[in-house]
Design brief:
The complex is a heterodimer of chains A (251) and B (162). Chain A has 8 helices and 10 strands. Chain A starts with a helix and ends with a strand. Chain A folds into 2 domains: 53 residues, no CATH class; 167 residues, no CATH class. Helices cover 37% and strands 22% of the residues of chain A. In chain A, the strands form 3 sheets. Chain A has a 6-stranded antiparallel β-sheet, covered by helices on one side. A two-stranded parallel sheet of chain A has the order 1-8. A two-stranded antiparallel sheet of chain A has the order 3-4. Chain A is α+β, with helices and mostly antiparallel strands. Chain B is mainly α. Chain B has one domain: Up-down Bundle (Butyryl-CoA Dehydrogenase, subunit A, domain 3), CATH 1.20.140. The N and C termini of chain B lie far apart (41 Å). Classes of the chains: A alpha+beta (251), B mainly alpha (162). Chains A and B meet through helix 1, helix 3, helix 4 and helix 5 of A and helix 1, helix 2, helix 4, helix 5 and helix 6 of B.
Amino acid sequence: MIDETKIMQYADGTLPIEEHDEVKKAIESDPKLKELYNNFQETGDLIFKLGNEIKSQPLPKQLQEKAEILKTWKKPAIKEVGSFNFFGLFKVQYAGVAAAFCLFFVGGFYTNTFVASLDGTNSSTVKLSNEVNIEPEKLKMRSLQSKDEDLQTRIVNLYKYFDEDIFLQEISNKVDDLQINDQIDTNIEDNIGKKVSFTLVDNFKVDGKNCKKLVFSEPVKLSNIDEGTTVTLDLCKIDENYELTSINFQK
Amino acid sequence: MKEKLDENFIKSLRVIARGIVGTKMDPDELVNGAVEYIIINEQKYMDHPNVKAIAVLKMKGLFIDEIRKNKKMTSMTDDQGNDLQIADEKQNEISDQINLTNECNKVLSIIKTMSEKCREILMLTADDLSYKDIAKNIEAPIGTVMSRLANCRKELKVLISK
């Protein structure tokens, strides 16, 4: 019995020549094998044609630019010493997601069930609230530094490397022992593999709950035009566990 | 042999990426991410004997990250429990913007509906890689590659004939 992979190899022209006779005879004597051979030929041709057609298409602009860089192996100016590089691997593709992110952003990016004070100030005051009162246009204008800043990209890029669950797991046992200006190291890595560390900058209370403000110990590059953003995280202790209550971007 | 890194390298990745993403995201975003990763890690990969395998691995990783991220996003609600309408938009199929003939478009559309393993191996074949190179890329024995490819091609034929 001839293995069907031999038939495929024969159809593809990759079967060792010393096996040709055996496979050829089997195909000629068995209509089912003949049909299988024809099918492999057909799919082989189609797949080959498909590959060639995709390759014949011009590259989109962003890929063309990268092809030029690869040819010369000249790096784009996005790797800097002294900052974490969270500059992303994807652009935000989905406007819906971006819009949803904007709903969360009010001088800070608020997570879980906490809602930030929407009093229009830039203070980091976080209050526990059951109300959502968001005016997207207003928020967007307030949070964007300039029309050139792509806020959505920056937020998504941050979340690509900053896993909230891992972060909380790593710091939860250590954060209570920290003094102001103490640094805490984590296994979170930025886009270029640099370990991310945080510094405690403030202790404060919200509704009687103990909260901590940590800052990424180096500025964070969050987009290809970002020269470095100071990112702070507010954590509050709820039921003996710290929860992330807000992420704040400051230039 | 060391891969020549140029426009053709990226065009190869565009073929392979279409096998990785199926209909879940824009394959060119995946290619962009993988190439960017290689550029950033120039010192590490400039003399690497198989940069394509690195890029393929990176594209798979990025795709998994994206899927995981989307799952996280789909659970987002406001504090009143209202869905933030992310889920529907994220679950929509992403149409491929590449301009193909009707025949190739049909084949690609069918491949995108197949299992992850079939998509991957068929598009690696479409990149004109040998069985041996495919085996390197998917880290599987060559025998596995051949039997999987044979099965996927039989399935493709059935789907095309429908």
